[in-house]
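User: Can you help me understand a structure? I only have the sequence.
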Amino acid sequence: MPARSELPSPTAAAAGRPARAPRRRVDGVLVLDKPAGLSSNAALQRARRAFAAEKAGHTGTLDPAASGLLPLCFGDATKFAQALLDSDKEYVATVRFGRATTTGDAEGAEIARGRADFTADDILRALPAFTGAISQVPPRHSALKYRGRNYYEYAREGIEIPRAARAVGIRALDLVEWGSPDAVLRVACSKGTYVRVLAEDIGRALGSCAHLVALRRIATGPFALAGAVTLDALEALTPQARDALLLPSDVLVAAMRRLDVTRDVASALRRGQRAGAPDPGTEGRFRCYGPDADFLGIVEYSDGALRPVRLLRTDDA
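Assistant: Let's start by predicting it. Here is the structure, written out as tokens:
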């Protein structure tokens, strides 16, 4: 008779379903190419099932209608996901001029029409006003919160709420292609930027209106779409080939300064203790490595000592 842990669950057996594969510890980062029409969480759960991973998370929501780069974190890598949440992003956006919608994208109902007989030069002259530090009013249909509820909940009920403008940064804004009424733009921007708001604002600057009809994220932090795998391709791989796609957790903090420590210091940090260390030249946070170039996690140096901030697990659990 098999051990109790090997028996299918009563619920699964009663429903005629096979028992769920046991979860396992998986650590690392998967660079995923999310398809349009799927939420970020749904994409995450499909990838998690493919790896049979115990723990997983994504590094910033990509709208269901959008496609492209969605780095996923497994196991210990989830501890460092914030670094990507704060990083710059890059998109290819298709903006349709001459039509405005309730949501600023193709999912909304039409609320206004305008001209779209611009030249490429007209658009090129408008773009510089939207580069650098700019101010955006978040869209009514967004997941930001006001008094504990999402903006989109108020919007669906027809309730207007105050939406304060926020500062964002547009590092690059280029016209890739123009064929009236659609313009393809490349947008490199800071976190918190709403590309559909950018589309609407450019339309107004041209004396018309516009909305976003397609959005594809092509870069985030150190990751580029060229290194991404689709969900279908991922699920078709052998378990060994899937595991080989995982990048080490420290790729998430590659932009941080590096600090190498001795074995004694590494041991103390792993025990959660402060440890004396040679002055690295400046105070602050570092990505830390032990004597065998093994990534320990993030540490902070101040007052002549290091303290652990967020470290990898050292057990085999």
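Now, to help you interpret it: The mean pLDDT is 90. Residues 40-51 form the longest helix (12 residues). Let me know which part you'd like to focus on.
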